[in-house]
Amino acid sequence: MSEIRRKVLEVLDGKCLTPPPIWLMRQAGRYLPEYRETRAKAGSFLDLCYTPDLAVEVTLQPIRRYAFDAAILFSDILVIPDALHRNVRFEEGHGPKMDPIDADGIARLGAAGVSNHLRPVIETVSRLRRELPAETTLLGFCGAPWTVATYMIAGHGTPDQAPARLFAYRHPKEFEDLLAFLADISADYLVEQIDAGADAVQIFDSWAGVLGEEEFARFAAEPVRRMIASVRARRPSAKVIAFAKGAGLLLKDYRQATGADAIGLDWSVPLSFAAELQKDGPVQGNLDPMRVVAGGAALESGIDRILDVLGNGPLIFNLGHGITPQAGPENVTALVSRVRGRR
Ligand code: CP3
């Protein structure tokens, strides 16, 4: 039997591959007609996340079309608050909503029933590992405590997460309790994903960029460190990608502070700084998703610059954030073949 190579895992071990492996955040999504078709068969978006048949299908769609090097479990970071009875719903055109939590609500949170609630997602992971090509890395994921907490406190998305920032200053004790609680149950959830067949996991801290220096250390980096330590105490070889969107210069110490194997980079991270970060280990990123919408020269030059600056070190090629619904599927074809076509 020939040896199976999972290239994303090789890069997570520090190897430099030419061409680099590629996958895209939100690669299963509304830019694909086959996703929209499956989505229409599910009742709500959460039904899609909790129906293994459908979740497996949409996870596989971008793998069939583009043969990406990694598949990411189809789910959402907000299944955690949903499992905590926050009544999460996704309304068309309005983004996510849930019942906002206050200090008393935080004191009443408990982990009972969370694992049971998330069982269909874990079932999706095990079926995916059986159905994916052997060489495709399977990524599990969850939200970072800070980002999940921002939605739980506001009850919806906001442009700057002012409600959570304000709550953290007014109720520091309860807020830190919330982050620690989310870190612990999210670590349990990641261990379950790994045991079901996830080869590596990504932690999404999509709202890290609204935090000041001190708050980034306490609310973003520390809970992610706690999560990774909790996962590794049980699964010592677990591989973790940490994506703190918008963190800018604060990414300098993020790998060391959290213990992540690889650091995800958004498109605002200068490539010269990305190259510095890459001296300490693998990086993932960071093409502007709008270049995929634009296509043509904008797409090509963006890809080439990343490969020129980061292509000789450990790199997982990705976008700097999720692909948007306006992206043309044919531009993704062009993206993948340009990344793979270079020697
Ligand atoms: O392909 C993949 O990347 C896996 C699936 C995935 C989804 N959400 C599916 C989804 C992943 C990894 C996520 C993570 C997620 N969810 C994050 C972190 C990453 C990021 O984008 O910043 C956040 C903040 C959320 C919360 C969330 N979910 C929001 C704010 C929204 C609404 C915005 C939107 O794009 O509509 C969602 C909905 C969502 N999650 C969709 C998908 C495909 C679109 C809803 C639909 O198809 O009806």
From TrEMBL:
E.C. number(s) listed in UniProt: 4.1.1.37
Transition state stabilizer, annotated site positions: D76
Compartments in which it is found: Cytoplasm
Binding residue positions for substrate: R26, Q27, A28, G29, R30, D76, Y151, S206, H321
Entry keyword Metal-binding: no
Reactions this protein catalyses: uroporphyrinogen III + 4 H(+) = coproporphyrinogen III + 4 CO2
One Pfam family per UniProt: URO-D
Main localization of the protein described in the UniProt heading: cytoplasm
PROSITE patterns xref list: UROD_1 (PS00906), UROD_2 (PS00907)
Pathway info: Porphyrin-containing compound metabolism; protoporphyrin-IX biosynthesis; coproporphyrinogen-III from 5-aminolevulinate: step 4/4
Any one Gene Ontology BP term: protoporphyrinogen IX biosynthetic process from glutamate
Keywords: Cytoplasm, Decarboxylase, Lyase, Porphyrin biosynthesis
Gene3D superfamilies: 3.20.20.210
CDD domains: URO-D
Cellular component GO terms, alphabetical: cytosol
Keyword Lyase recorded: yes
Gene Ontology molecular function: uroporphyrinogen decarboxylase activity
HAMAP family, per the entry: URO_D
SUBUNIT field: Homodimer.
Function: Catalyzes the decarboxylation of four acetate groups of uroporphyrinogen-III to yield coproporphyrinogen-III.
Family of the protein in this entry: Belongs to the uroporphyrinogen decarboxylase family.
Designated name of the protein: Uroporphyrinogen decarboxylase
Protein species of origin: Sinorhizobium mexicanum
Gene: hemE
